[in-house]
Every structure is written in structure tokens, then in C-alpha cells.
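Q: C-alpha cells for this one, please.
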Amino acid sequence: MDQEDQPPGGRRGLLQAAATLPLLGGLALSPALAAEMGRSAKPLRAAFSNAGLQATWCAQGKAAAEYWGRLYNVDVTWFDGELNATRQRGAIDNMASQKWDFVAIQAFGIGTLAAPVRKMIDAGVPVIDMDTLIAPLEQINVHSFLAPDNELMGAAVTEALMQAIGGEGTVIMTQGALGHTGAQGRARGFDAVVKRYPKVEVLDTTPGDWDVTKVARIWDTHLTKYPKISAAYFHNDDMALAAYNVMKAKGRTEIKIGGCDAMPPALQAVMDGRMHATVRNPSCRIHGGAILAGVAAVVAGEKTGEGGIPKHVITDGPVVTRANAAGMAWMQKHFLI
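A: Here is the predicted structure, written as C-alpha cells:
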């Protein structure tokens, strides 16, 4: 903006004024700067739930939502999904019995939460869907759906693995929960790539349900059953690293490993060679974006559709290799991606 178009004192003046005020949520805010940011003048109440805080992606998302909530004057109350569709349904039923300014949910399984979510939508509460579909978008009027292109993610990491094994050999895919639309997309991406490599045999696609204990048992069986495994693709990094520990214990670390989410432990594993590649499912961008979407809906009256927030917002992150892993770690540290 030109100097004459800036508010009195300019943006620099606003920032300087902010620096003289007490910190709030890690950021000093003058009233003028708060208004410019779209921050709520009064505390907003938001309810969040994701699949289960046992998963590092979900735990990072909670931290990101709380961080961005502090910046935008939002009190975040968490309802843990516990990696269990029945327990998450109970938590969301509880959520729906209370009053909120807005709500953000990542469902453990598609269709499991539709009834209580519709109850909140009917009450006028903006509901932001995160990462996996609560229900097909034509069946439920969520404010917006923030998610990566999971099929693209699955294809990208699978292609990296195919290149690493020279386009021939054997591969195993360990899936997430089969009712999770993100896992479904990652499986489609895997299948689409593997079909292009006739010299590659898929040995197994047993789901691990995001459960690292279950994955360790599955991979103990795989390593006993299959003397030759060229590569392994996992629907998240937690499962990939759990399987790597079993591989290491059995002296099978020649297997090329790919994952999804690009969480800090996986970034380190890529840098030190334990994992070949991962792809970023931007937990911070999705959970932080849900805060911004909710605040914009409540404070600015932003609607869904033309001129407002799209019904589906793509939040893709990059494939991560040794070349960009350190930068990705820095951006995650500051809840940017």
C-alpha cells in the first residue's frame, strides 16, 4: 500500500505501538493492530476434536490451534477422539450439548459424527471440517473443509519409493484406518503409482489403524513371512517409525521407507537416512487455518462461497527429503505449516 493509504502512523507505527503493550498469547497487540488482524475484541469459545492425541500429527495440531487461538483471542476446548470412532462420537455428542462460537473437527471415520455435527450446524454454529470428511460435502453443510490432497500425497511418496528401488521389487503398504477419507486417498495414490510398475509386486496392504503397537505386531509378522521386501509405504510417520524399530531389531534396515505427515521425528529420520522420504500433511496450517476461518466467520461474518471461504480449501505440503527437511522443521516449530 502507498504511504498515503496507510492508517495514521502506518503499519510500522502499529507494530511499534504493539511493542509497548503487554504480551498476549506470545504477541503484543495494540487495539488497532488487533482490528487489522481480524482478531476478536472479546474472547471466543471454540471446540476442537481430532482423531486422537496419541498420534503426533494430532498432538501437533492441538498445539497449533491453541497457539493461533491465543493470537486471535479464542479459548480452545479440546475433545480427544482417542483413535476410536465410538469414543469420539461420545465426545462430539458432549460437544454438541454445549454452546460454542465455532467448532473444528477431524473425524476418525467418515459418517460417524454426522448427527451431532448437524445439530450444531442447525444451531447456527460454523463447523470447520479438518483433514478427513465428516460426511460427503454434499450431505453436510460444514463451513469449510481444510485438507490436503491425500491422493497426491500417497502418489508422491510412492513414486519416490519406486525410484529408490529402480522400479522393481516388492512393496508393502501399511494403511491407516480404513474409514478415514485421508487414508482412502493415500491408498488410491499408492495404487495409481504401483500400477505403472509391472515389475513391482504388492505383498500386503493390512491397515495399522494409526496404532503403533498394532503396526509393530504386523511388521514382526511381515518380516518373518517375507524374506525380501524392497520398500514400504506407511499412511503416517508414526507407523513408519514403529515399523523401522522392528526392522532394525531384525537386521532388515535395507527396506526403503516412505511415510506421510513429515512430523519432526520423521524429518530427523529422513535427514539421518532411516526413512527415504515423507510428505507434509500440514497439521499447523490446517488447525491454525480452522482458527482463522472460525474467527472470520464470527467476527467478520464471512460466509461460505463466492467472496468468502471456499467449501473445500486445499492445504498441500511438499514432499520432504534431505534437501528441505531442516527448513520444514523450522516452519513447524513456528506453527506455519
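A few notes: The first strand starts at residue 23 and ends at 24. Residues 1-28 have pLDDT under 50 and may be disordered.
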